[in-house]
Amino acid sequence: MGNDEEKHCNLIMNKERKLIIAGNWKMNKTAAEALALVNSLKLEIANVKEVDIVVCPPFTALESVSKAILETKNIRLGAQNMSENNFGAFTGEICAGMLKEFSVRYVILGHSERRQFQKESDALIAKRAAAVHGAALKPIVCVGETLAEREAGQMEKVLETQVRGSLDGLTKEQMVETVVAYEPVWAIGTGKTATTQQAQDAHAFIRGVLAKKFDAATAKKVRIQYGGSVKPSNAKELMGQPDVDGALVGGAALEARSFADIIKNSI
Ligand code: PEP
Fold this sequence. Notes:
alpha/beta, eight-stranded parallel barrel, 13 helices, 8 strands, about 15% strand, binds phosphoenolpyruvate
């Protein structure tokens, strides 16, 4: 084993938290296409146990994907959003009970696209995170600064506000079962990845905010994913950072081989 490889193995083995790698399929894939994708993925990662693997298809494909992974032990199902309400006159919304019908385990909340296009606020995301926990599901709460905010030296302020606001009201026990996804907006879908140092610095900062808001022991247990143009070629280095506990993957999750390679390169 070469020095670099050895160093990487030691880092992974010393990870305090199990890696969690999730594919956010966004508004892509019909139910039939989603089924084909998950079936290919099943073959690609049949023997992987070291990482929690989550796929988040659009709502319309949850049923087909759920059935396809029923017997699969290593792939969990996630949704891309959820209402804070349990039922009622909320046209176009989806509630926890509807997701649980398809054995959904994780729910992405506050993705930057929803913050931008649906104007979702930290307060709304916090309500949704509470509802997700209320239904015994696990939220993946996204935070991240824009390029303008980073260049204006506002990154830490923005992250602190988002982390505190979006996770407000959670108990320590709920926080431990919450995944935070650090997704710098300038790296999403752009092909620009944060450097490993930029990712590590932001993750360490977020963990510090969690320690102040909850406590150090809680913060130590929370898994923080990196998201933003993760691909097979950069996964290993990113996952090797001490505070990077997985990835939220967009574009590269739409193809079974590249998503599988990200997972395999991370262990
Ligand atoms: C995302 O949208 O969550 C994401 C990280 O996308 P991409 O991997 O395509 O940058």
